Structures are given as structure tokens and as C-alpha cells.
Amino acid sequence: MSFLPDAPALAAYLLACLVLWITPGPDMSLTLARTIGGGRRAGIATVLGTSVGTLCHTLAAAFGISALIAASAAAFTVLKVVGALYLGWLAIDAIRRGSALTVRAERVQGSLRRTFWVAAGVNLTNPKVVLFFITFLPQFVRADAADPAGQLLFLGLTFVVLNLPLGLLLVFGAERITGALTARPRIMRAIDWTFAGLFGAFAARILMTSR
Fold first, then answer.
1. Read out DSSP for 8-37?
2. pLDDT tens across 102-150, in order?
3. Where, by residue number, does the polypeptide cross the bilayer (predicted)?
């Protein structure tokens, strides 16, 4: 199956997805805030909304990057190097500034449908998410792969499939998770260093093999 990456790349990708999920960011903050303010149903609607946004980013990245590969392998290599530099910057920023977790238990107004679309909109309009997807996914695909578009799509869908159940677990354990993260700064710093180490390694690997 040409859309499957090789085993080492897939293992590294799954590890990266797990580290990404445990690293607090805008989607996690929004999910926790909606759950605490509006209950589990609001939290579930938020998870579904952010998942739809992520799916849209996946499709855009997969077909856009695959078009770039078809046009020029050299351009794809440039994209990978730029992506490596961006991942390196993320690693440094995680150590300098730490994880971003902002949770305010605000009352959720409106229907669950509105909550869903607000969450999807927040995800879709976040420029950092757009930049992340177009630089993160190519790190696990070879420019000379038999089916680069299929691999990009597979990786993106895997990201969504993994994050959906994890997001639901986040909703069900919202209060405990929020308390653990905010009351234990050492846990937050350990997450930051894990994130920085993993993505720093990815950045170094791609820079050394870019030729």
C-alpha cells in the first residue's frame, strides 16, 4: 500500500502526535473552558468542532503539498527545510515561554450547534495551525514517495482519528486534568521539555538529510 509510510517514520509520527496532544495549546484550552462552563455536551461539541477544523487543514495540506511535489522536488525540499526551522523554533519557544493553557469557566451560551461551529472556526482561523500542518506533515514523507498525496492524507487522518478519542477523554476528565496541570508546574515543564526535545530532534534530522 503506497499510501503507508515506512515503519520508523510511522512510529516517529505517532509519538509526535501523542506529544502534541499532551502539550497544552489553544484547542485544549478551548475544550477545557467549554466543558467547565457548559458541561460535557458542550465539551464534546467543541472536540467535534476542532476535529472538523483539523480535517480541513489535513485536506488542504495534503493536496496542496502534493501539488508542490508534482511541480518541483526541489521546492518540496525547500519546504521541508523551512519546516525543520519552524519545528526548531517551536522547540525553543516551548522552553522559553512554556505551554499555553488558559482556562476560564465561562458560561456557554447558545446551542450545541453554535458551540460546534465556534470551535471549528477557532481552529480553522488559527494561522499557527495552518503553518504547522504544512510544515509538520512533510517531515514524514519522502519527496520521491510513490504516493505522497496518499501518505500526507493518511498521516493527517491518523492525526484526527487519534485526537478525537483523546479529546473525549479530556472532556470526561476536565476538572482533574485542569487541576493537575495548573497546580503542578513541574508537570508542565516536563511536557515542555519533552516537546522541545522531540521536535528539536525532528528539526535536526531533516536539516542533516535535506540534500
1. HHHHHHHHHHHHHHHS--HHHHHHHHHHHH
2. 555 555 556 788 889 988 887 887 766 777 777 777 778 776 667 777 8
3. 6-23, 44-69, 75-95, 116-137, 149-170, 190-208
Q: 130-133 long-range contacts, Cβ below 8 Å, gap at least 24? A: 130/57, 130/60, 131/86, 132/86, 133/57, 133/58, 133/60, 133/61
Amino acid at 178: T
Q: Hey, how many other C-beta atoms are within 10 angstroms of the C-beta on 165?
A: 10
Q: Residue 2 domain-assigned?
A: no
pLDDT of residue 156: 86
What pLDDT does 39 receive?
82
Residue 139 has which C-alpha cell?
517531515
CB atoms within 10 A of CB 92: 13
Q: Supply the range of the domain harboring residue 119.
A: 7-208
Burial environment of residue 62 by CB neighbours within 10 A (0 to 12, 13 to 18, 19 or more): buried
Q: Per residue in 44-102, pLDDT tens?
A: 999 999 999 888 888 887 777 766 665 666 766 776 777 677 777 777 877 776 655 55
Cα–Cα distance between 139 and 78 in angstroms, integer? Answer: 12
- For the chain, the domain total comes to 1
DSSP assignment letter at 106:
P
Among 141, 165, 144, smallest CA distance to 153 is for: 141
Round to whole Å and give the CA distance between 40 and 178.
Answer: 14
Query: What are 63's three cell numbers?
Result: 493536496
